[in-house]
Amino acid sequence: MCRKGHCGNYFRMVIANNPGQTAPTVHPDPWETVLTDGHASLVRARRVFRYLPSEPRCKVCNNPFGGLAGRVLAAAGFTPSRKNPNLCSRCCDALPAGGAEVDVAVLFADVRGSTALAQRGSGLSASDFAALLNKFYVAATRTLLRHDAVIDKLIGDEVMAFFVRGISGPHYRRRAVQAGMELLEAVGYGSDEGPWLELGLAVNAGVAYVGNVGGAVVDFTALGDPVNVSARMQQHAASGELLVASGVADELTAQRPRRSLDLRGYQRPIDAHVLGV
Q1: Residue 143 φ/ψ, nearest 5 degrees
Q2: pTM above 0.90, yes or no
Q3: How far apart are CA 16 and CA 18, in angstroms?
């Protein structure tokens, strides 16, 4: 359940941005509504904001914090939240505490050989290595936003994103796989020049807890076994491979080779399809 006043604030924000709409009926579980049925205003905002530069962005609504667009939107209250700079103050303060258990698709992408690249003998300076990772972050962000992903984390040489029906649309599982394939293309796989960065990816799906987690510092994230499995699957992906767990989007992956993965901490192997560009 939402905390007193928070749901009302969220829905009032939606109405304020869409004056032609009437007040929606407040569902007894607002997180269930947002994550499964979707919020038309939120989805529209994400699709508009993703075309505005610059990074970084609010994880929920895609509002840019940097550049001219960020300065203009800051005047309307879309500033980084003090509780979590990865969320704008409107989303962080308006969305209620807690979350809901919903089906999600989770994507992990990891740069292969990043440790060697960062070492002095690689021929790359520290600033060159940072520039390479920043180029990867830009490519990953643009690709994932096109598929309405929630970009959860950009950590070192790794990206985590999740796709949920209420934000990414009814084909969220399929979009996770398509985003993974497009990210391989974005770093050069399948091109005449070859990849400018070696990447391995994995996509898994299942019921996870999605919502605002934390106290003094709040984060909008996904937690649970599907997330852990996807992270461990990614460790088995070779350069240029996207591993997709069976059952995620079989209409896209059924004809692709299969591989049995023995994941750390899991007694039974995971059956996965192997995709590449």
Answers
A1: -65, -45
A2: no
A3: 5
